[in-house]
Write a structure and sequence with these properties.
Blueprint (H helix, E strand, L loop, with lengths): L2 H21 L9 H8 L3 H7 L3 H25 L3 H18 L1 H10 L2 H5 L3 H25 L7 H24 L8 H37 L1
Helix pairs in contact: 1-2, 2-3, 4-5, 4-6, 4-8, 5-8, 5-10, 6-9, 8-9, 9-10
Length: about 220
């Protein structure tokens, strides 16, 4: 990497860090590019050289955090017994979002299709690549958790989309602060434990139904 590229990268990281610092002290959707520039100690025009809009800045923050998260999830998974990994990683994901409500809100915002449609192709490609990487990782982990039952790729996708719906619903409540106003951290942790157990029970139950349906279909064809 050339010196110029290194300086560009360092400046971009400084902009992202400045934005996060501001997002933690005032509503993130009200922070202006001008305020980010002042916080980073650079000109407003320089910020626009890196990020043509606030949406591009939001996207880069979420992409960076998503990449860091999956690396962390992979490391955690490697240290765990296979049958425990899915639950532990899922619960750890909840904990990370609970500890960083600003990023939880940004994740929810950037996950919207209408948001991603407005992004430049480079960002859309990165989001698509991340989605495929997460799907492959969780499919492999779920297969281990279920004991390699021989489900199809389509079966695993249906299972994971159902789990994602539960996870996203709980995450939305956390991001909106709807749960935190009703209970303390201990109660909130207990709630997320229950949601995690509900997800795992649903995955096991749905997988069993899929296998049973397959067996019944095979018997009918005999």
């Amino acid at each position: 990497m050339s010196f110029h590229d290194q300086q560009f990268e360092l400046r971009q990281q400084a902009i992202l860090q400045a934005a996060l610092e501001l997002f933690r002290v005032k509503p993130w959707d009200r922070v202006t590019i001008a305020e980010v520039a002042v916080q980073a100690g650079i000109g407003k025009g320089t910020v626009y050289k890196h990020f043509p809009s606030k949406e591009a800045l939001y996207a880069q923050l979420v992409i960076n955090d998503s990449q860091a998260n999956i690396a962390e999830f992979r490391a955690l998974h490697a240290r765990l017994p296979k049958h425990e990994a899915m639950r532990t990683v899922t619960r750890h994901a909840f904990a990370k979002l609970l500890d960083d409500p600003v990023m939880a809100q940004l994740f929810m915002h950037c996950d919207r299709p209408d948001f991603q449609e407005r992004l430049d192709p480079e960002f859309r490609q990165q989001f698509d690549a991340l989605e495929h990487e997460y799907l492959a990782f969780f499919t492999s982990m779920l297969n281990d958790t279920l004991g390699n039952p021989g489900l199809s790729v389509e079966d695993y996708e249906r299972l994971l989309w159902s789990a994602d719906a539960c996870f996203t619903g709980a995450m939305a409540r956390v991001a909106a602060g709807g749960i935190g106003h009703l209970c303390g951290r201990d109660e909130l942790d207990a709630y997320l434990d229950q949601v995690t157990d509900f997800i795992m029970a649903g995955l096991h139950g749905m997988a069993g139904q899929m296998l049973q349906t397959r067996v019944e279909g095979t018997c009918e064809s005999c």
